[in-house]
Amino acid sequence: MAGNPVFGGKVEKGRIVWDEPEKRAVYIATLEGKRISEPLGKEVTHRTTQQNKYYWAVVLEVFGNHLGYEPEELHEAMKIKFASKFLDNGLQITESTAKMDTVKFADYIEQIKRYAALEHGCYIPDAGEIE
After folding, report:
1. 20 compared with 66, residue with greater pLDDT
2. Hey, is 18 helix, strand or coil?
3. pLDDT class of 44 with cuts at 50, 70, 90
4. Is 55 found in the same domain as 112?
């Protein structure tokens, strides 16, 4: 087996309720007698394909056309403006939008839309407004 499988679940009343308990049990049986480790943490869901399509095809396209920039150029500029931070040593880094979770990416898009409207008079339609 290439790599270890990842089994998801949720915590209810202090106990883990696994999504696929039978499948997990079968896998655990294959580890009989071996030492194991099981890292636990909050599940991260990266931005969705639909969010990404909306970002590139609508947000960056509309705002880019308004400002006279290609979507790729505007993407880099928006990452610097809304997805960057300064480290203690003074260096500035930008976060990868591909690694943002769905909530953070949605917030990032909203910041761009608000900036486009308030600072540049550019209305970017919501995802539900387009066909």
Report:
1. 66
2. strand
3. low
4. yes
Q: Which domain holds residue 122?
A: 49-129
Would you list the DSSP string of 38-99?
A: --------BPPHHHHHHIIIIIHHHHHHHHT--HHHHHHHHHHHHSEEE-TTS-EEE--GGG
Tokens standing for residue 49: 């394909």
Q: Which residue has the higher pLDDT, 14 or 40?
A: 14
Cα 46 to Cα 105: distance, rounded to the nearest angstrom: 8
Task: With H, G, I as helix, E, B as strand and everything else as coil, classify residue 100.
Answer: coil
Q: Does residue 68 sit in the same domain as residue 113? A: yes
The reply to whether 74 and 23 lie within a common domain is no
Dihedral angle computed from the Cα positions of residues 101, 8, 42 and 1, in that order, rounded to the nearest 10 degrees: -80
pLDDT band at 96 (very low <50, low <70, confident <90, very high): very high
* 118 and 62 co-located in one domain: yes
- Would you state the structure tokens that stand for residue 114, as one six-digit string? 């608000």
Average pLDDT score over residue span 58-86: 96
- The torsion region of residue 53 among left (phi > 0), alpha (psi -120 to 50) and beta comes to alpha
